[in-house]
Structure formats: structure tokens, C-alpha cells
């Protein structure tokens, strides 16, 4: 039975929107003068419209050999048309699923829009996926055609076919980076450009066919299939329609005006709902220019060069940026540290007043000076100098990290949603940001809090269902259309949604206090030296398994003249244990006694998605951690001095070595923090 805390925002439709976004025309112009009343409620129709309205404007640009290579909307549309005909020549039919596997490149989106143009759906696969993950998705979705980026991805698929145990329907692999594949002779391999050429030839005998297929597409057709996070089980495949995604885009952009002059750097996997949400759905509905970095090594410099207006990243990206700044300031000279410390304190006070709805008053002039000499250079180094709309989502972001970015002048806002609701249901408003909340519902979205605290959501963006899994669909969405999120939370007095945690991850302290494990873990991860933390409740108090950040901790070790060889060696150093103990002690200072970390262990390795310890979006699989490291958790609960674990190391030649490791347990009840807190700069954001 539900409480009466239902907040409908359907009374705030996007301008010009009819009541039902699944059937209404998306008539708002993307920058040109197309008449209202046309139905552009599919991705291919939006692309056709942009190609007609702004043929010579840049739609996509990719950096190759240090030079940005632009693709106009007209060229984009032409390549989509060619590849769509090419897919048809391969036998792809309406209702089928085409898979795309690889990093972000124009060819990914060309393949996606081409498949959708002829009525097929696209399932994105993370480029880091291997073995059984690939088999699971390809088998479940009955995929016959895969578009793969390069030799690395092709090799994975070749191995799958070589060891096929039945169930795979894969017939064709199309690759778009031919480097290293020149000598491959497998008959199922096709070059992307060859498929485009075949498409042009195929079109000669079927004039008008492509336009007929685009016109036949319906808003309710499945556009994209996204894998769920899979933190507790195998990822499910969530079907999202054009209408689902475009309703979300319409409602978000009615709050934050994103337009055709805005730039977006696309570097997070298109398999993630967040990138489909911003880069694809909002990109097509508002005509954004998308830029693709040359590779991961140039990502930061390319981000600085482009200076995007819009940015959406999961917490790990923002946390990484914060760590980068912390390390840079730690290593800077005394004058620079003092200058930034002063600028940060001014920015922090201004941000605090704005969050409270108060006037900046006399701080306005001094803040302008502080921004010019201390804060803007930091934003510029991070590639955030031009950002007008900055979002985070996919997992909780600690309030300390939020505070930092607002203090340096980045208007960072939390997005709350799930794959099953197109990634977005709730967002902060510019003038109404509370760090502890995730904001208020976007237009067209309703929220209900069940008596057990579960958050329920309802909107036109709730997904079509799980692919070939009606039972799971019925469990996720009830007969009244409410999506059961599995998250626990509440609505505060101002109507903001406060998300506590996944309902199953809300823990109980020894005194009966219910608390969010994610909140405490985010406090720990505010440290630049902590990469990941997983907390556990026991009668003896809270304990944690912590992994160190190898880059920042390694830099600290070098500065401290501490030699080491491997990650395992670094994590085992007594000096590193003391460093992390200080960081945990600082985090504990802000927590009630009953929910403070009492003991922790530094794990000998990083959590790895290939080991199923975290998802491809780097969410911790708590059940896997609890099972795999049960002996460590038991030692922490007992208060032992050490914890023993057996570890297997696999070398590049395939040989495996098993060894027994003894990890030291750090007991914070007997730890005394040093008087000198000089390891962390005064501007850390802690009060």
C-alpha cells in the first residue's frame, strides 16, 4: 500500500506538447523553420529534418591524427541512408536487433540510425565486454549482424564463433577500423565502407524504399536496447522506444535550454543509457554537435580543446577530476596553494549563499577576482571553462564532491533515473540545488513513495519491457504503469527526492540505526587516494574493504620517496595504510558514532569488471564482493589483526600462479591521527 506522497508534474508539459508523448508530434524546431504538426517522433525522422534544415552545419566531428574531421548533417544522413541499404542487402529486417560493439565513433551512430531507419533496434555492447557477457547478449537478442569497431572486437567475436556451443545466430560481422584485419579471411567479415558501397548499389533498384521505411517507423517502436547495470544478477536487456527517449529529451530540455549551438564531447560508451540519453536523444532533438576524442589518451586534452557546453558523466569521472586537482595542488608551490585556498574559500561561501537562496552581496566583487585568478584556470584545465549544463548520474555522488565543483564555479546537477526510465526522472533545477537530494521530477513524471520506502516512478519514458523476459517486466512495472525502482528514499519538505540507497543495501548499525552504505562509501571516496570502498555492518561496528587509487597514491608514494613495484606491493606498505587510515579518520569525523568505520583492509587488487566485482559502468556488485572476500569480512568482524586470502595471478602467457596473501587489518579504534594534517590541502571542502 502506498502513501499519499505522489507528486505529479504532468501539469508542466513541454512547450507545444500534447498530452501523450507516444503519439504527439515533436514539432518544436531544432533550429530551422520546419512547420509544426509534422511527426518527427523517431530518431531517423529527426535526422532527416536536421539534414534538410541545416545541411552544412557540423553534426559530428572525430579527431584523427590530431585534426578534427567534421561530418555535416547532410553527410551524416547520406551515410545513414547508404548503410541502411547495406544492412538490408545483408538481410536485416524490421523488428530485428543489430548489435554494435566498440568505442564511440561516428560509425557507431551511423549504424544505429541506419538500423532504426529500416525498423530494426540496436543493442549496444560495452567495448570491454568479453566471453560470456557477449554470448549472453547476442544469444538473448537473437543477433545476426554485429557492427564491431576493430581487430580487438572482431577477435572476440571470432573466438565466440569458433567455440560456439549453440544458441548463437551470428552471421555477419561488419568492422569500421580495418587496421590489422587485412589478412583475415573469415567469410562472415565485412568492411563498413564495403557495406555502404553495397547499399548504394542495392538502392539503385529500389528508389524510394529508404524513405518509405523511415515513414513506416512508429514512435512506439523499439529504438535501443540497453543492458541494465546487473549489480545483483546477469544484466537484463531493457527495450526503449523512440517515444520513451524523445519524451525524456523534450522534458529535460524544457528545464535546461540546450540548443544547436551547444557542443558535447562523447567519450562514454553508447551502450550506457546516459550517453544515449544526452548524446543521441537530446543531440537529435536539439541538434547538438558531437565531438569524439581521438583515443582515451587524448581525452582530457580534446575535452579542453573543445570546451563543451553540455557534459554528463557518472560520479567516477567527477571524482577523478577532483582527485586530479587535489594532487596538482598538493604538488604546487606554497604561493599557488595559498592562492587557490583563498579562491576556493570565496567560491565556497558564494556557492553556499546561492544554495540557500541568499544574495551574494559584498562577495560579488571579491568573487569575480577570485574566479579570474584562482578558479577559472582550474576549470580550464579540466575542460569545464565553457560548461553551462553539467550533470552527474548513474550512481550517488557524495555531497563533498558536489560542493567542490560548485565552489570552483561548475553548476553541477544530479540526475536520478534508471535504464528502465531512459536514465532520467528527477533533476536539480538551477535555482534549487540541495546537495543531499537529487532534485525534483522533470515535467511529465510522477513519484510515489511506498510505505516501505521504495521509490516508484511513472512517465512516458518508462520502458517497453525487458527483451524476451515478460516475468521480469511484470515485476518491474505494475498494472498502473508504476516503475518499481528498488531504491529507498523519501520526499523532503521542499519536495526534493532524497535517495537513500538501493533498498537491499540499506544497512543496520549495531544500535539499530538504518543508514546508507553508499553515503558512507562516498565519504571515503572523497579522498583522492581511495578508488573504491565497500562497507559492511556487524555487531562490532562498521568495517570496510578499500582499494587505493594507483595513480594518486603512486604519486604520493613517489613524493614521499617510497619505492614499490606493483599495486599489491603499494597497497601493502605500512605508510600507505597509515595514509588511508588518516583519510578514513577524517571521513569518520563527519559521521555519528554508530556508523563510523571501525576497521578496514586495503585489498591487494583493484575491483575488476572482468572478475565480475564491478559492472561495466563501475558499480560494485556487493553480493560478489561479500562472497569472494568472505574470509576478509569475517576477520574484520572478529577484530583479527590480519586477514588471509588466496589469490590467483594470470600472466600474459596464460600461466596461472596461486598464492596466499596476508593482509593487515587497520583498527581505527586504536588509531591516533597525527597533529599535522598537511597531507590534505585546507580547501578540501570539509568543514
UniProtKB/TrEMBL annotation:
GO terms for cellular component: membrane. Keywords: Fatty acid metabolism, Ligase, Lipid metabolism. GO terms for molecular function: long-chain fatty acid-CoA ligase activity. Gene3D superfamilies: N-terminal domain of ligase-like. Pfam families: AMP-binding (PF00501). Residues 49-467 form the AMP-dependent synthetase/ligase domain. The keyword Ligase applies. Residues 8-25 have a biased composition (Low complexity). InterPro entries: AMP-binding_CS (IPR020845), AMP-dep_synth/lig_dom (IPR000873), ANL_N_sf (IPR042099). The keyword Lipid metabolism applies. Residues 1-30 are annotated as: Disordered. Belongs to the ATP-dependent AMP-binding enzyme family. This is Acyl-CoA synthetase. It comes from Intrasporangium chromatireducens Q5-1.
Amino acid at each position: 500500500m502506498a502513501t499519499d506522497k505522489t507528486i505529479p508534474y504532468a501539469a508542466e508539459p513541454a512547450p507545444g506538447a500534447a498530452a501523450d508523448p507516444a503519439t504527439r508530434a515533436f514539432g518544436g524546431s531544432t533550429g530551422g523553420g520546419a512547420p509544426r504538426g509534422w511527426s518527427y517522433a523517431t530518431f531517423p525522422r529527426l535526422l532527416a529534418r536536421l539534414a534538410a534544415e541545416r545541411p552544412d552545419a557540423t553534426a559530428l566531428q572525430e579527431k584523427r591524427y590530431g585534426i578534427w574531421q567534421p561530418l555535416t548533417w547532410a553527410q551524416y544522413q547520406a551515410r545513414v541512408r547508404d548503410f541502411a541499404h547495406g544492412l538490408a542487402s545483408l538481410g536485416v529486417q524490421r523488428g530485428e536487433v543489430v548489435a554494435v560493439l566498440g568505442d564511440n565513433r561516428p560509425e557507431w551512430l551511423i549504424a544505429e540510425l541506419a538500423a532504426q531507419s529500416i525498423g530494426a533496434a540496436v543493442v549496444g555492447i560495452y567495448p570491454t565486454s568479453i566471453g560470456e557477457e557477449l554470448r549472453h547478449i547476442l544469444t538473448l537478442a537473437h543477433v545476426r549482424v554485429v557492427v564491431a569497431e576493430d581487430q580487438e572486437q572482431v577477435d572476440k567475436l571470432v573466438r565466440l564463433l569458433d567455440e560456439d556451443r549453440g544458441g548463437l545466430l551470428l552471421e555477419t560481422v561488419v568492422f569500421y577500423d580495418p587496421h590489422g584485419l587485412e589478412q583475415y579471411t573469415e567469410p562472415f567479415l565485412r568492411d563498413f565502407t564495403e557495406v555502404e558501397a553495397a547499399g548504394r548499389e542495392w538502392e539503385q533498384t529500389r528508389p524510394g524504399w529508404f524513405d518509405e521505411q523511415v515513414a513506416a517507423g512508429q514512435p512506439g517502436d523499439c529504438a535501443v536496447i540497453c543492458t541494465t547495470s546487473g549489480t545483483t544478477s546477469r544484466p537484463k536487456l531493457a527495450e526503449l522506444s523512440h517515444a520513451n527517449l524523445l519524451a525524456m529529451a523534450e522534458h529535460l530540455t524544457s528545464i535546461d535550454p540546450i540548443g544547436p549551438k551547444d557542443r558535447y564531447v562523447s567519450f562514454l560508451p553508447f551502450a550506457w543509457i546516459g550517453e544515449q540519453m544526452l548524446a543521441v536523444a537530446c543531440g537529435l532533438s536539439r541538434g547538438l554537435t558531437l565531438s569524439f576524442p581521438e583515443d582515451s589518451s587524448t581525452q582530457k586534452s580534446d575535452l579542453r580543446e573543445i570546451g563543451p557546453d553540455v557534459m554528463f558523466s557518472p560520479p567516477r569521472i567527477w571524482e577523478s577530476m577532483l582527485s586530479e586537482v587535489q594532487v596538482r595542488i598538493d604538488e604546487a608551490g606554497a604561493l599557488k596553494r595559498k592562492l587557490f585556498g583563498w579562491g576556493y574559500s570565496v567560491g565556497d561561501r558564494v556557492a553556499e549563499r546561492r544554495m540557500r537562496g541568499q544574495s551574494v552581496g559584498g562577495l560579488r566583487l571579491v568573487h569575480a577576482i577570485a574566479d579570474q585568478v584562482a578558479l577559472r584556470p582550474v576549470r580550464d584545465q579540466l575542460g569545464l571553462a565553457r560548461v553551462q549544463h553539467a550533470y552527474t548520474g548513474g550512481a550517488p555522488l557524495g555531497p563533498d564532491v558536489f560542493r567542490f565543483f560548485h565552489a570552483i564555479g561548475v553548476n553541477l546537477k544530479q540526475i536520478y533515473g534508471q535504464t528502465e526510465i531512459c536514465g532520467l526522472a528527477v533533476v536539480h533545477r538551477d535555482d534549487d540545488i540541495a546537495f543531499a537530494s537529487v532534485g525534483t521530477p522533470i515535467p511529465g513524471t510522477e513519484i510515489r513513495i511506498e510505505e516501505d520506502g521504495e521509490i516508484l516512478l511513472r512517465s512516458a519514458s518508462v520502458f517497453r519491457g525487458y527483451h524476451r523476459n515478460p516475468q521480469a517486466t511484470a515485476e518491474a512495472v505494475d498494472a498502473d504503469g508504476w516503475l518499481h525502482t528498488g531504491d529507498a528514499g523519501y520526499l523532503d519538505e521542499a519536495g526534493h527526492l532524497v535517495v537513500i540507497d538501493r533498498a537491499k543495501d540499506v544497512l543496520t548499525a549495531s544500535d539499530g540505526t538504518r543508514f546508507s552504505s553508499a553515503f558512507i562509501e562516498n565519504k571515503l571516496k572523497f579522498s583522492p587516494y581511495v578508488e573504491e570502498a565497500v562497507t559492511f555492518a556487524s555487531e562490532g561496528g562498521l568495517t570496510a574493504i578499500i582499494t587505493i587509487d594507483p595513480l594518486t597514491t603512486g604519486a604520493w608514494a613517489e613524493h614521499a620517496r617510497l619505492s614499490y613495484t606493483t599495486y599489491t606491493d603499494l597497497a601493502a606498505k605500512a605508510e600507505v595504510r597509515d595514509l588511508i587510515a588518516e583519510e578514513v579518520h577524517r571521513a569518520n569525523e563527519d559521521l555519528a558514532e554508530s556508523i563510523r568505520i571501525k576497521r578496514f583492509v586495503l585489498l591487494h587488487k583493484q575491483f575488476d569488471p572482468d572478475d565480475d566485482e564491478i559492472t561495466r559502468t563501475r558499480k560494485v556488485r556487493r553480493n560478489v564482493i561479500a562472497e569472494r572476500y568472505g574470509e576478509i569480512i569475517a576477520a574484520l568482524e572478529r577484530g583479527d589483526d590480519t586477514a588471509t586470502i588466496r589469490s590467483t595471478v594470470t600472466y600474459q602467457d596464460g600461466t596461472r600462479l596461486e598464492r596466499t596473501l596476508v593482509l593487515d587489518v587497520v583498527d581505527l579504534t586504536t588509531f591516533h591521527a597525527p597533529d599535522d594534517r598537511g597531507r590534505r590541502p585546507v580547501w578540501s571542502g570539509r568543514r
